[in-house]
């Protein structure tokens, strides 16, 4: 089992390394330049030890001349200048590579995430995805732009220092090498633990971010239910859990650093004892001992630095794994190898042919059962039914957010699975029941329907949606900031902007999910007229919760537990479908009752 775990870790390491090399490949020139600067600075640093030997033996020894001292100092200063210049080049290029790879990785992950099918996000927290794209890539940027460079530089210094130690004094080198296995062992043992804990720590931090995002996004609901104290306690638990995991990781790194320092400096102390006695006995010169001490300290410092950044490298490996999981996530809704092109002009005819569908989370339960229905081009269809009847699922299937489990959906006689999803969706516009606005201006949100729309097109769409008047009253008109999710606008205003967005898209198929539900009576009347004009000549499918809004559509489809139980006009369904007649009786009788109560209120008030 242990061997199997080691093999899996090795495969994971190779996978992470291969992926990172893939992101580095486009920047070979910068990597080469940084590598050359790295080798040069390491070589210059190692040469300083020989400069010190010359300085001690030639400049400070008895009988040394002033010219010899000056020459030694000039040589030493020249090496320092070269080292500083090389360090500048190395630092700049390595930092540039770190920032560039981090940006590329963010773009690659986001580009992949936004193409994934909606079903993927049913099992993923949005806060966790945000954490991976932001926090984890920032960690990788720090490691690639700093820690990797430090690790490589100190690895060169370690091996170069060992070589110079052998050249300078093989006997003393043997004393130093005794500590090497003792140092490498703890690095490998503790490093594996740090990597595992780093992955866990990043997951816990992502959970904290997800909770914060939900609380802030729904702050009105939190405060309306006086849930601040309970949410504060929950957040405290999340934060403390993340802290506890981080402390365990930090403790492991602290022990690693402590052990390395004791072992390495202990070896240096032993070397000084042996070397000091050799100098006193005349077996080596003071300059040789100085150079040897320099290289020994350099080797020790290199091992210490590597042990420090090894934890960072393991954290980066954990972050890379989390990012690669997103990049490797499979998109279940893909265009076919050779997509069919729709015949022009696109008509917008829809055909449901014995459609079955079950969600992946509940594969044994069919959400849609043997649904068969044709929607001629230019006609309107309303889907009505109780909650859970499958109305919204039909919209999702039309947009090919999911693929049917059985049967087929055809758009202009073409199975939508044979179409590129992007081409299919460019002929469809949707107005959801809960309008979605993005952070930005009013104009930005309307232009979402058609990216190349002019300001005049946007204003025309807003007028058609009866949104122009209230937009003009905003502080900056169409350039007014709507806030996150449109928080600065009322529900009715957000709905009309969503309708304007759909109008701007000028679709062949219009999907309306009770698009007037958030409007007051006057606005609903105006927008209903706009929608009636919009629906003319276009295929329209309307999800209706209030039957009064769909009395005039061409046909009404009655759904019950995913099955089509009746279809026809309002007047026909009243006599043909007991279920529809019952809903109509409940809704219209209640509406008439409320209207009569409203009419009587002034009279009763006057009587009093």
Instruction: Give the total of beta strands.
Output: 10
The CATH class of the largest domain, by name, is Mainly Alpha
Order of helices and strands: HHHHHHHHHEEEHEEHEHHHHEHEEEHH
SSE-based structural type: alpha/beta
CATH topology of the largest domain: ABC transporter transmembrane region fold
Mean pLDDT rating: 77
Instruction: Name the helicity range.
Output: 55-70%
CATH architecture of the largest domain: Up-down Bundle
Strand content: 5-15%
- What is the CATH superfamily label of the largest domain? ABC transporter type 1, transmembrane domain
Number of domains: 2
Distinct helical segment count = 18
N-C termini distance: 88 Å
Question: Looking at the structure, what is the overall shape?
Answer: elongated
Question: Which residues form runs of ≥5 with pLDDT under 50?
Answer: 1-10, 593-608
Task: Give keywords.
elongated, 608 residues, single chain, six-stranded mixed sheet, 2 domains, ABC transporter transmembrane region fold, Rossmann fold, alpha/beta, four-stranded antiparallel sheet
């Amino acid at each position: 089992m242990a061997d199997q775990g080691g093999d899996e870790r090795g495969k994971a390491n190779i996978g992470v390394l291969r992926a990172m090399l893939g992101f580095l490949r486009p920047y070979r020139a910068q990597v080469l330049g940084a590598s050359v600067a790295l080798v040069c600075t390491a070589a210059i640093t190692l040469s300083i030890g020989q400069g010190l030997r010359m300085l001690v033996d030639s400049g400070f020894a008895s009988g040394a001349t002033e010219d010899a001292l000056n020459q030694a100092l000039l040589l030493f200063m020249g090496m320092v200048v070269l080292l500083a210049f090389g360090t500048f080049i190395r630092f700049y290029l390595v930092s540039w590579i770190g920032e560039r790879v981090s940006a590329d990785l963010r773009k690659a992950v986001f580009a992949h995430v936004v193409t994934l099918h909606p079903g993927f996000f049913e099992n993923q927290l949005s806060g966790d995805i945000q954490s991976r794209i932001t926090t984890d890539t920032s960690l990788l940027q720090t490691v690639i732009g700093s820690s990797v460079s430090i690790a490589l530089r100190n690895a060169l210094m370690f091996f170069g220092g060992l070589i110079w130690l052998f050249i300078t004094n093989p006997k003393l080198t043997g004393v130093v090498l005794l500590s090497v296995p003792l140092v490498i062992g703890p690095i490998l043992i503790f490093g594996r633990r740090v990597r595992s804990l780093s992955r866990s720590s990043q997951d816990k931090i992502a959970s904290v971010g997800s909770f914060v995002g939900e609380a802030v996004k729904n702050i009105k609901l939190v405060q309306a239910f006086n849930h601040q104290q309970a949410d504060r306690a929950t957040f405290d638990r999340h934060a403390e859990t993340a802290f506890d995991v981080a402390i365990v990781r930090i403790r492991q790194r602290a022990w690693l650093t402590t052990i390395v320092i004791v072992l390495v400096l202990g070896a240096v102390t032993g070397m000084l004892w042996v070397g000091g006695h050799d100098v006193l006995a005349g077996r080596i010169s003071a300059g040789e001992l100085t150079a040897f001490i320099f290289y020994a300290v350099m080797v020790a410092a290199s091992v210490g630095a590597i042990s420090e950044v090894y934890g960072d490298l393991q954290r980066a490996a954990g972050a890379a794994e989390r990012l690669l999981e997103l990049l490797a996530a499979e998109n279940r809704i893909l265009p076919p190898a050779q997509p069919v092109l729709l015949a022009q002009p696109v008509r917008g005819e829809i055909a449901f042919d014995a459609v079955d569908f079950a969600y992946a989370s509940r594969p044994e339960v069919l959400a849609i059962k043997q649904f068969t229905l044709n929607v001629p081009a230019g006609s309107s269809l309303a889907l009505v039914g109780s909650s859970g009847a499958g109305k919204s699922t039909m919209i999702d299937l039309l947009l090919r957010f999911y693929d049917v489990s059985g049967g087929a959906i055809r758009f202009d006689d073409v199975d939508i699975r044979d179409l590129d999803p992007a081409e299919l969706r460019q002929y469809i516009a949707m107005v959801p029941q809960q309008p979605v606005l993005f952070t930005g201006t009013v104009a930005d949100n309307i232009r979402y329907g058609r990216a190349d729309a002019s300001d005049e097109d946007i204003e025309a769409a807003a007028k058609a949606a009866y949104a122009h008047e209230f937009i003009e009253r905003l502080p900056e008109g169409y350039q007014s900031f709507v806030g996150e999710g449109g928080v600065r606008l009322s529900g009715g205003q957000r709905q009309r902007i969503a309708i304007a967005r759909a109008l701007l898209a000028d679709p062949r198929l219009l999907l309306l999910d009770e698009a007037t539900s958030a409007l007051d009576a006057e606005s609903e009347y105006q927008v209903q007229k706009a929608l009636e004009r919009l629906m003319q000549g276009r295929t329209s499918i309307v999800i209706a919760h209030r039957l009064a809004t769909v009395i005039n559509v061409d046909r009404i489809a009655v759904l019950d537990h995913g099955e089509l139980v009746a279809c026809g006009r309002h007047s026909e369904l009243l006599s043909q479908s007991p279920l529809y007649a019952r809903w109509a009786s409940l809704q219209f009788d209640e509406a008439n009752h409320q209207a009569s109560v409203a009419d009587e209120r002034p009279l009763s008030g006057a009587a009093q």
